[in-house]
Write a structure and sequence with these properties.
Radius of gyration: 17 Å
Order of helices and strands: HHHHHHEHHHHHE
Strand content: under 5%
Number of strands: 2
Shape: globular
Helix content: 40-55%
Strand order of the largest sheet: 1-2
Structural class: mainly alpha
Length: 232
């Protein structure tokens, strides 16, 4: 955990990002470290994530993997890719993905993964490493996060608790209905909840440069999908 900030919200985002990845065969091996990380997190989101970990521990790896794959898909509007909620499967989404890669690079992070840069666990690690800019990025996609949370809640999925914990790290209350969340998508978050001087510029020089490079540096928590920091 030493590579990351130790503030409460950062810890919540790190643990949430871990459990929102495909669990695989070794997820249960990570449970002690995930629980240990939550000891430094705020009580409410830590309790939500702890309840999810309890349910996950009670399942076999096969059961947990099956639950994950049946939970997250676009058909049921339960998608873990942030730009999908804004752009759908359109050409505009490609520009949004390039912009995200550029944001990571501007903060010294080189995206290197077979995953897309809008994958929620990737955004959560960025938001843990760079809390101010990361919070702004998550706020930018707040409507999609809240719609995903509501969809998971309506389906009775234990993953709803994970999204509740993530949203609890963001300023302002969560919308209670789909209509409220859609209004948030249309109007954006209240101005007082958004930084006046945005660090997330839309585009910059060199957006057509290839940004994918191999990554091999180890981490303390399992992050196979994340950006890698550029050496100073």
């Amino acid at each position: 955990m030493s590579r990351y900030p130790s503030t409460g919200h950062a810890l919540v985002r790190l643990v949430a990002g871990c459990v929102l990845q495909y669990p695989g065969d070794y997820f249960h091996d990570e449970l002690p470290r995930l629980r240990a990380a939550l000891t430094g997190a705020p009580a409410e989101p830590a309790a939500l994530l702890g309840a999810f970990l309890d349910e996950a521990e009670a399942q076999t790896p096969i059961e947990l993997c099956s639950q994950y794959t049946s939970t997250f898909d676009t058909r049921n509007r339960r998608c873990l890719y942030l730009t999908w909620w804004v752009d759908g499967d359109t050409r505009r989404r490609g520009l949004s993905l390039v912009r995200l890669k550029r944001i990571y690079r501007d903060f010294g992070l080189e995206f290197a993964s077979e995953e897309l840069p809008d994958f929620l666990p990737v955004a959560l690690e960025f938001a843990a490493r760079e809390e101010e800019a990361g919070t702004e990025l998550l706020q930018e996609h707040r409507a999609g996060l809240e719609l995903l949370r509501l969809a998971l809640t309506e389906s009775g999925s234990p993953y709803a608790r994970v999204l509740e914990a993530v949203c609890a790290t963001l300023p302002g209350p969560s919308p209670e209905t789909r209509a409220e969340a859609k209004a948030l998508a249309k109007n954006g978050p209240p101005q007082e909840l958004v930084g006046a001087g945005s660090a997330l510029e839309p585009f910059g020089p060199g957006i057509d440069m290839p940004l994918d490079f191999p990554s091999s540096a180890p981490t303390d928590l399992p992050w196979p999908t994340t950006p890698e920091r550029i050496p100073a």
